[in-house]
Amino acid sequence: MKSLHLICNAHIDPYWMWEWEEGAAEALSTFRTAADFCEEYDGFIFNHNEVILYKWIEAFEPALFKRIQRLVAAGRWHIMGGWYLQPDCNMPSGESFVRQILTGRRYFQEKFGAQPSTAVNFDPFGHTRGLVQILAKAGYDSYLHCRPDNNDCPLPDADYVWVGYDGSEVAGHRTLVWYGTPARGMIRGALEQYMKTHGDREVGLVTWGIGNHGGGPSREDLEDLAVVMRETDAFPIVHSTPESYFAELRDRNVTRPRVERDINPWAVGCYTSQVRLKQKHRLLENELYAVEKMCAHAALLGLLEYPRDALHDALCDLMVAEFHDILPGSSVQ
User: N or C: which end of the chain has fewer CB within 10 A?
Assistant: First the structure.
C-alpha cells in the first residue's frame, strides 16, 4: 500500500427510527463536537454532506454555522457529496435525482463556496445505472457508496469504473469497511484489521466515525489514530477527503475494472412495502413538475407572478420523502 486515506464522517439519518426533531438535535450535537476537534487537532478533516442537516444548523445555531463556514474555508471541514440528502437511489425519477443534486449544489455554493466532485450515498440500498449519466452531466467524476455489500452484489473490485447507459463514466468505490464505527474506541482495531486484510491495495480508504444516530469522531479515536499514524512507517496514513482519494487513484493510474450494470439489490422487500407511500410520492413528483411548467408558462404570459418560494418548499418536501429510509418504507411512520 502506498497511502491510506481516512474519511471521517458521521452518518446522520435525519429520519429513521425517530422524527425530525431528534435528527436535528443529533446534527447539532455531532457538528458541535466535530467543529471542536477540527479546531483542536492539526491535520484532522471532518467530512459531511446533506443540505437538510446544514439548514437545521443554520436555523437553530447560527454561531455554529459560522464556525463551520470558517472551517470549510480553512480546509478543515469538507463539504462532502453535495446533495440535498441521501435519497433512495432506485425509485425517484431522473428529474428528482437532478433536483437533489441541483438544490444541494446551489446551497453549498452559496453558503460555503464548495462544489464537490465526488457524489456520496453511503446508505441507500442500491444504485440505478441511470445515475451515471446524471452524475457525469452534473459535473461529478466519482461516486462513493457502501451498500449493497459483496454478498448481495459482487463487484470485480472495490474500485471500478461505473459505465452508464449512454457510455458516460464515473469512478466508483464501494467501501471495504462500513461507512462508520459502531462506538468509541473501535477505529484503531478496525484500521489495523483493514491494513492486515487489504495491505496489497495500492491506495486504501477507510471511512470512520460513529453513525446512524450521529456521533462522528471521538477524542479517544483521534488519539488512537495518532498513535497508529506515528507507528506506521511503510506508508502515510492521512486524514483526507473522497476527492483526494480519487485524485490519487488517477495520479497513480490504478487499473480498475468496468461495471456496466446497476449496483443492486439489497433489502428487496423495501421496494414492495408501504405501497401507499410510494404511490403518493410518484403522484407528488408528477403534480409538482407539471405545476412548475404551468406556472412558468402563465408567468411568461404575465398572468401571475411565478410562485418560486411555494414551489421550492414543495420540492424540499418531495426530496425529504425520497430519503433512503422513508421512500423504501424502512422508517417509523
Answer: C
User: Any idea what DSSP says for residue 4?
Assistant: E
* Predicted pLDDT of residue 44: 98
CA angle 34, 145, 319 (to 5 degrees): 80
Give CATH for domain 3-259: 3.20.110.10
Domain residue extents for the chain: 3-259, 271-321
- The CA–CA distances, whole Å, from 90 to 51, 160, 220, 315 equal 20, 20, 38, 18
Tell me how crowded residue 178 is: count the other CB atoms within 10 A of its CB: 17
Q: What is the C-alpha separation between 324 and 53, in angstroms, rounded?
A: 15
Cell reading at 156: 470485480
pTM exceeds cut of 0.85: yes
Q: Which three cell numbers stand for residue 312?
A: 421550492
User: Could you give the CA distance from residue 264 to residue 174 in angstroms, rounded to a whole number?
Assistant: 12
CA distance 210 to 216: 5
Give me the average pLDDT of each 10-residue run along the chain (333 residues): 96 91 96 98 97 98 98 98 98 98 98 98 96 98 96 97 98 94 92 96 97 90 97 96 98 97 91 91 98 98 98 98 93 70
CB-count exposure of residue 165 (10 Å: 0-12, 13-18, 19+): exposed
- Give the integer Cα–Cα distance in Å for 127 and 131: 7
Task: Round to whole Å and give the CA distance between 242 and 263.
Answer: 19
The residue to which cell 473490485 is assigned: 157
